[in-house]
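[stage:ingest] chain + small molecule (zinc ion)
[stage:ingest] validated
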Amino acid sequence: MIERMSALETISILAERNAEGAYITPGGIDSHVHLAQANSPTGDGWETGSRSAVAGGTTTVIAFASQKRSDPSLYPVLEEYHGLSRNLSFCDYGFHFILTNPTPEILREELPVLAAKEGITSVKLYMTYEPMQLSDRELLSIMLACRSLGMTTMIHAENSDMIALIIEGLEAHGNTAPYFHAIARPRIAEDEASYRAISLAELVDAPILIVHMSSETAMGHVRNAQTRLLPVHAETCPQYLFLLSEHLKPHSHDDFEGAKHVCSPPLRHDVKDLEALWQGIANGTFTVFSSDHAPSKYDHSGGKKLGLVDGVARFAKIPNGLPGIETRMALLFNQTEACQPPDKARLGLPKFVQLTATNAAKLYGLGGRKGSIAPGYDADLVIWHPAGKGEVNISQGMLHHGVDYTPFEGMHVRNWPRYTILRGELVWNKDQGGVVGKMGYGQYLRRGKGEVIMGKIGGVPRGMQEHERQYWL
Ligand code: URP
Ligand code: ZN
Ligand code: ZN
Ligand code: ZN
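[stage:predict] done
[stage:export] tokens:
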């Protein structure tokens, strides 16, 4: 029964083989990836995306099943996404629902069934993007429904009207090159929406996680909420810790290449922005570190590039999102004390493990099974090279995803997962064979209720008195 082999048995077998002197961490959990999503048709599918995951030390992903506005029920949506992933995954996986049409039936009848029977215990909501965005009233209704079910509400927080106004002005001035994407979505749009999301959550006393945060001020709003013991969680991603908006400018023979770095929120302008987020990593404001792997190919057949319309760049038509499922673990590991001298290390190994695996497991209802090396847990492990060995220059050529570039091209990391082990099976062997796992070995995970990691339900509200809630909630 190899699948039930314990982590400790696995480690001892590996120690006899090749793990001597190596660091061993739990298999990564990437709790924010977009694979085969209907609204990003050029993105990675399950085969390439999950292959890329294990090659980078990630053993579990939570991807999105995305409701369209015209979908009156979530059941067919879930079936569709099961169909797109079934027998195709190299890693274990679950789904969050993206809700765009939260009807009373869905909130009252369907979510409880999906949580209890299908193990979907989290939703992602958009405050921006015309086809997906929700009103504050809708956000509140969903938060309330999720609260009562022990589900986590993930929120993409950017102020949609601010962005629409700026895009109109940029286009009127002919400023449509890729770089203007970063101008169109200023930090204040993220700051305002993050504060609003926290306020809505506070009103109804619901746990939330703000996804892919990039702004110091927005992060400060989260930090203040956490100080008041509100159940407010935050996520950031490698792109917001390592990359700046200069990548969106022309910097090669190809003026349009900045399109490779279009994501939302956008890459910010200043090293100070990166430094502030590193502080949030170190001081515990961020609960999870995910990739937001949401890739689109840059070059399509016939040289077609999305967002280049009759030879004219139109940033507002460039698909949003970067690839990063494979590079996430190594990029953060490289900043730990395992790879850097003490005065240069951004974080310790325990924090690395929390951010890349343990916290996501707890928050998203995989606690007790994933995210830790402990008796009774799945033997999901990453074995790194011993210190001083295994360095890598990141390049597109070494990666296993289905897109044609990496935004982290040329970055140097001092270590890379040497072995990835999923439920006791070797699925990635950097030295020999590369991806040695089998497609379809990855299992669908029915998740349980999430744990609140920061603060608590029933924290201290500020904009009202606690007793006021009793009359209506
Ligand atoms: O630019 C991004 N992040 N695209 C992916 C979709 C999303 O908002 O997460
Ligand atoms: Zn988002
Ligand atoms: Zn570049
Ligand atoms: Zn995303």
